[in-house]
UniProtKB/TrEMBL annotation:
Protein known as: Co-chaperone protein HscB homolog
Source organism: Shewanella surugensis
Protein function: Co-chaperone involved in the maturation of iron-sulfur cluster-containing proteins. Seems to help targeting proteins to be folded toward HscA.
Domain J: 2-74
SUPFAM superfamilies named among the record's database cross-references: Chaperone J-domain (SSF46565), HSC20 (HSCB), C-terminal oligomerisation domain (SSF47144)
UniProtKB keywords: Chaperone
Subunit structure: Interacts with HscA and stimulates its ATPase activity.
Family statement drawn from the similarity comment of this UniProt entry: Belongs to the HscB family.
Keyword Protease annotated: no
Length: 176
């Protein structure tokens, strides 16, 4: 299913999330299963299915990573169940440095400063990936789509790192 069509958007990485939320609410009102309470069983089932599609579409399009994956899937490149890893050596080296920094938080003399520094670093790096990804996804060249896939893999890693950082920060508060 093309979620961009469902929400009346042109397929694009850049989505107006406020408009997306507005269209989501409108679609949910139109097909909510309660509106079909006195209808046939088939119509009730269709309403539930349609509601699930709308929910899935909304979750997909509001999240930059899943939106990018959906765009690539529409172009014939499926990433959702793959196990391909990033082969970018500088990025892999940077990953190792970030992981070491995450491990250093607990023993740091100034863990809050290290958390803030890492958080900003993760945000900046993710934003640079997103900026490049937006350009690659707008291209009509298959080689650009494959580069976009690598950027999505990097972005997924950054999301995991951000989660790990949040857990490390929570662990500090738990220890206090």
């Amino acid at each position: 299913m093309n979620y961009f069509e469902l929400f009346s958007f042109s397929p694009s990485f850049d989505v107006d999330t406020a408009l997306l939320a507005h269209r989501y609410r409108d679609l949910q009102k139109a097909v909510h299963p309660d509106k079909f309470a006195h209808s046939t069983e088939q119509n009730k089932r269709l309403a539930v299915q349609r509601t699930a599609q709308i929910n899935d579409g909304f979750q997909t399009l509001k999240n930059p990573v899943s939106r990018a994956e959906h765009l690539l899937a529409l172009k014939g490149i499926e990433l959702s169940h793959e196990s391909t890893t990033v082969k970018d050596t500088p990025f892999l080296m940077q990953q190792m440095q970030w992981r070491e920094s995450l491990e250093d938080i607990r023993d740091s003399a100034a863990p809050d400063d290290l958390i803030d520094e890492l958080n900003q670093c993760f945000i900046d790096y993710s934003q640079s990936i997103i900026s490049r990804l937006a350009i690659l996804l707008e291209s009509d060249q298959p080689q650009d789509w494959h580069q976009a896939a690598d950027h999505i893999r990097k972005l997924k890693f950054m999301v995991k790192l951000q989660d790990e950082l949040s857990r490390a920060e929570d662990a500090l508060f738990d220890d206090e």
